[in-house]
Amino acid sequence: IAAPGVNVLSTSTAIMIEVVSNGISLPCVPLENGPVASTVANIVNCRLGNDVCDASGKICLIERGVTTFAEKVMNCQENGGVGVIIYNNEIGDVLGTLSNTATTIPSVGVTQAVGITLITYIGRSVIKLTTDISNPALTYGTLDGTSMASPHIAGLTAKLWGHFSECSNVQIRNVLIKTALSIGEGCNRYSGYGLAQVKDAYDLLQAEGCNVGTVDTSDNAIGGCGQLGDDIECGTFFNDCTDNSDCCTNKCL
């Protein structure tokens, strides 16, 4: 079964850029494979980072695009820069990598909005920049993925089971599956039986009891799209399925 996992407001650890003059902190993400380092300096607008800019002793503020992250950082470093902040050219975070390029200055990515904010501090305040994640700040942010959806399912399952503690874990699972809202073409490997509907599951258990969650295959713990004993047509999930494949009848990988 599935749960919301896109653009979910969550607590998350974050590295912060500090505007020293007023103590404002702005979130950033260290570029992968960059060094752990810190610096305090003025910032300079190096635009796309593909031309020479007056970077000596300064933090280069660079827009994403045209050249690679590694090329942007190296260009700043070779021109005397002491740090790099790359801001996005569209909505969203910059999650970049330096690959195998060895650099010595801290480099991070920020959103387009943070980049625009930093431009207003050019010549007005020094910036403290670090890529040390050993003691990150705790903040809130929107995140995507199974790391958001899985706790959602775990939490609602625990809440439901707390109301019907006499049921087995398998029965609770099966009732959630039976009452899920299909968001694909039947059960599939992307969203399972569908979006969890915990109130519907509660109502079904309240009306019919734990046995409504008992099916012939429960003891086998088949899981996936075979959990309720459905016949899964060969080839539904993998084009190379055969009659003897594990992804066929009553099973789903």
TrEMBL record:
- The keyword Hydrolase is assigned to this record: yes
Q: Which catalysed reactions does the entry list for this protein?
A: Hydrolysis of proteins with broad specificity for peptide bonds, and a preference for a large uncharged residue in P1. Hydrolyzes peptide amides
Q: Which InterPro entries match?
A: PA_domain, Peptidase_S8/S53_dom, Peptidase_S8/S53_dom_sf, Peptidase_S8_Ser-AS
Domain of life the protein comes from: Eukaryota
Tell me what this protein is called: subtilisin
Native species: Proboscia inermis
Q: Which family does it belong to?
A: Belongs to the peptidase S8 family.
GO molecular function terms noted in the UniProt entry: serine-type endopeptidase activity
Q: Which GO terms describe its biological process?
A: proteolysis
One Pfam family here = Peptidase_S8
**Taxon lineage:** Eukaryota, Sar, Stramenopiles, Ochrophyta, Bacillariophyta
Record-annotated Peptidase S8/S53 domain positions: 129-194
